[in-house]
Design goal:
Radius of gyration of chain A: 19 Å
Distance between the termini of chain A: 24 Å
CATH superfamily of the largest domain in chain B: Metal-dependent hydrolases
Oligomer: heterodimer
Order of helices and strands of chain A: HEHEHEHEHEHEEHEHHHEHH
CATH architecture of the largest domain in chain B: Alpha-Beta Barrel
Structural class of chain B: alpha/beta
Structural class of chain A: alpha/beta
Number of helices of chain B: 12
Shape of chain B: globular
Number of domains of chain B: 2
Largest sheet of chain B: 8 strands, mixed
Chain lengths: ~325, ~425
């Protein structure tokens, strides 16, 4: 397993498990592969004959579609299994589902699961590659990589940048993957959010500083990354109202002025317009949100390529 | 049937004995304790030289899963696991199916244990009917039927007024109340200790405050009602402090901890190890140090395993879906012996916490080697090294975080009423 370029892992579970060099490699490959997406014929034979199973235990449009497009552009066969249409609702265990899928000889399982650690569990039990498309509040490595690719494209580097991440850090796999990835690549991360959404010891995850005030995090930042607030997931005791949340932890023009002039705004989507992000900023010139989506396909192609050990596409 | 245990190092805190002595057992009782005893004709002799001889160990907190959950454990397998771990008596919690909240269930447990069990089984009845926390169980009749304590273990009695009345009523009936002190609102959907490890693993945390505020409530209710209270499985710095302070001002409170709380921290959860999932959850290094300090200064009276067998299907799942609890009967003794090696306890202290104190707390006539006492005896090889192997555990369930680890110390003989029920 692993690519000919020296990627050693069978699986990609989280950016915590990857070295700086491996992240670099994944990003460089993504940058190369990105060109395919603007070709007239958007397909290379790299993963021809390989089968990619998208196993989604949690609703997702963006990530699943992005993985599916990525696999198809590399000529892999893709199958989508979602919780609502599979035997999951009949109470089959993850272990049994995995065994049944494995019996059909897939090469890669791309899974999203609501439980943190589900991918560790799966990867230990299947011989094919496992790519994490998000597990609970643990990691979302493809999101972390697309965030980094977007930042690197803009600034030509990651090292030395100031990145503000604002929102519910406790329940965010996006935040964890961003923290691991960015701080390994030499960026400094500043976190802000209500204290009820700031997990204990988060500053020990990397080169991370926790700010009391959102303004402190945004001030002089190169990147402002806003997280989606999800009341239904996060319970009713953590913040008083979305109105008050928006007032203290929402990004608008006034707060964005505190960041560097050429700072970019990112969001993993889907956006709650008017809550964590005002529409003017979301659609404004500094917003890189759609670039993130575009880069998502490229980094997912890179991930699929590197775990499968295929040949790089010829120019 | 006579039995002579020769030349062992006898540890009996009730008599303040730590000496090389012989013990003569006749008709299931301790007949003589002394040096140079001669074996009567026909007596079996155990050469205990180089071994420890202690009162039969008592685990005051186990789950035998019988009746109703026999696929996890039953009275036969559970008492065999107890014997293999050096325990001659266990107190079994009432969260069977149905709950042991009436004399019929109590009678079933006692009857099956007498007929098929290999060690003494002392049932613990429920505090509330069905352990639902709504109305008191018939504690008087439970006691009469043979229950040695009441507890809703697994669930806290959430209603403070009901807990107050339970303490008062249990005191009146002369039965010990064991609390599972936990504030469920603070636990929420938590699955492990709240702290850095949970942050890293992205798992929902259970704050130590969930235990501390509940222990504080229960201790104050015991103080207010002037009733005895035993707090089960304490795991935090705060619980130790609250109980230490309460004892200092004369509150009739005792408590226990489990071997995993002085052996492991929440680091053991890394890799999403479901065999490190239990309730209360494994805590942090500071808590572990506090538990040891509490054992050393006497705040913590007893070591009990909270032996909680679960089927593989209930542990071989995603972490959030796994059942709480681990088996403990067969690893308790070697883990506790580490406390002696680390000089947290001396051998007398250890035996007090694993035999004498549990007997006193539950009011059972066990826990000493005094002449005339029931001959429940554990002979321990404290030096023997062994590997925890799932295949070799006597328990039906293998959910131990210590699988594959080296242990030092084990039971060489477990003797119940003068009869050898386990031999290494």
């Amino acid at each position: 397993m692993g690519s000919k370029l020296g990627f050693k892992h069978k699986d990609i579970i989280g950016l915590q498990d990857l070295s700086e060099e491996e992240i670099q490699l994944l990003l460089d490959t993504a940058e190369n592969l990105k060109e395919i997406n603007s070709r007239d014929i958007k397909k290379v034979p790299t993963l021809r004959g390989k089968t990619v199973v998208n196993l989604f235990y949690e609703a997702s449009t963006r990530t699943r579609t992005s993985f599916e497009i990525a696999a198809k552009r590399l000529s892999a066969d893709t199958i989508n299994i979602t919780a609502s249409t599979s035997s999951v609702t009949k109470g089959e265990t993850l272990s049994d589902t995995a065994r049944n899928i494995l019996a059909m000889k897939p090469d890669i399982i791309v899974m999203r699961h609501a439980v943190s650690g589900a991918h560790h569990y799966l990867a230990q039990r299947v011989s094919c590659s496992v790519i994490n498309a998000g597990d609970g509040a643990h990691e979302h490595p493809s999101q972390g990589l697309l965030d980094m690719l977007t930042i690197r494209e803009k600034f030509g580097k990651l090292a030395g940048l100031k990145v503000a991440i604002v929102g519910d850090i406790t329940h965010s796999r996006v935040a964890r993957s961003a923290i691991y990835g960015l701080t390994k690549m030499g960026a400094k991360v500043f976190l802000a959010g209500p204290p009820t959404m700031m997990p204990p010891g988060v500053e020990r995850l990397g080169n991370v500083q926790v700010c009391k005030d959102m303004r402190e995090a945004v001030e002089g930042a190169d990147v402002v990354m806003m997280l989606r607030i999800q009341l239904e997931r996060q319970g009713k005791t953590l913040i008083p109202t979305l109105r008050e949340y928006s007032r203290y932890f929402g990004l608008n023009h006034e707060v964005l002025k505190l960041a560097k002039k050429d700072a970019i705004v990112m969001h993993p989507g889907p956006i709650n317009r008017g809550v964590e992000l005002c529409s003017h900023v979301a659609d404004g010139p500094q917003s890189h949100i759609l670039k993130q989506v575009e880069n998502g396909v490229a980094v997912r192609m890179s991930m699929l390529y590197h775990v499968s050990g295929g040949e790089l596409p010829t120019e | 049937m006579n039995l002579l245990i020769k030349g062992g190092r006898v540890i009996d805190p009730a008599q303040n004995i730590d000496d090389t002595l012989d013990i003569l057992v006749a008709n299931g009782k301790i007949k003589e304790l002394g040096k140079g005893l001669k074996a009567p004709a026909g007596a079996e002799t155990i050469d205990a030289s180089g071994l420890l001889v202690t009162p039969g160990l008592i685990d005051m907190h186990v789950h035998l899963r019988d009746p109703g959950l026999e696929y996890k454990e039953d009275i036969v397998s559970g008492t065999r696991a107890a014997a293999a771990g050096g325990f001659t008596s266990v107190a079994c919690m009432p969260n069977s199916r149905p709950v042991n909240d009436n004399k019929a269930i109590t009678a079933y447990i006692i009857g099956k244990a007498k007929a098929e069990g290999v060690v003494n089984v002392f049932p613990v009845g429920a505090i509330t009917q069905g352990s639902k926390g709504e109305s008191l169980a018939e504690m008087g009749e439970l006691k009469e039927a043979g229950c040695v304590a009441v507890s809703d273990d697994g669930h806290p009695v959430a209603n403070a007024e009901l807990m107050r009345r339970a303490l008062e009523y249990a005191k009146g009936m002369g039965i010990m109340l064991i609390s599972h002190s936990e504030e469920l609102a603070l636990v929420g959907e938590g699955v492990m200790n709240e702290g850095f490890t949970a942050t890293e693993l992205g798992l929902k945390g259970i704050p130590w405050a969930a235990e501390d505020v509940a222990v504080a409530r229960d201790v104050y209710l015991a103080e207010f009602s002037n009733s005895p209270l035993h707090v089960a499985h304490i795991s935090t710095t705060g619980s130790v402090r609250i109980i230490r302070d309460a004892k200092a001002r004369g509150v009739k409170v005792t408590c226990e901890t489990a071997p995993h709380y002085f052996t492991l921290t929440d680091d053991a959860v890394r890799g999403y190890n479901t065999n490190a999932r239990m309730n209360p959850p494994l805590r942090e290094a500071g808590d572990l140090a506090s538990i040891k300090a509490g054992l050393k200064d006497g705040t913590i009276d007893a070591i009990a395993t909270d032996h909680a067998p679960h089927h593989l299907n209930e542990k071989d799942v995603e972490f959030n879906l796994a059942s709480n609890g681990i088996v403990g009967l067969e690893t308790s003794l070697p883990l506790a012996l580490r406390l002696v090696e680390e000089k947290v306890l001396d051998l007398k202290g250890l035996v007090a916490k694993m035999a004498l104190n549990p007997a006193r707390i539950l009011g059972i006539e066990r826990g000493t080697l005094k002449v005339g006492a029931v001959a429940d005896i554990t002979v321990i090889d404290a030096k023997r090294e062994w590997l925890v192997d799932a295949e070799k555990l006597a328990s039906k369930s293998k959910n131990s975080p210590f699988l594959g680890q080296r242990m030092k110390g084990c039971a060489a003989y477990t003797i119940v009423s003068g009869k050898i029920v386990y031999k290494l």
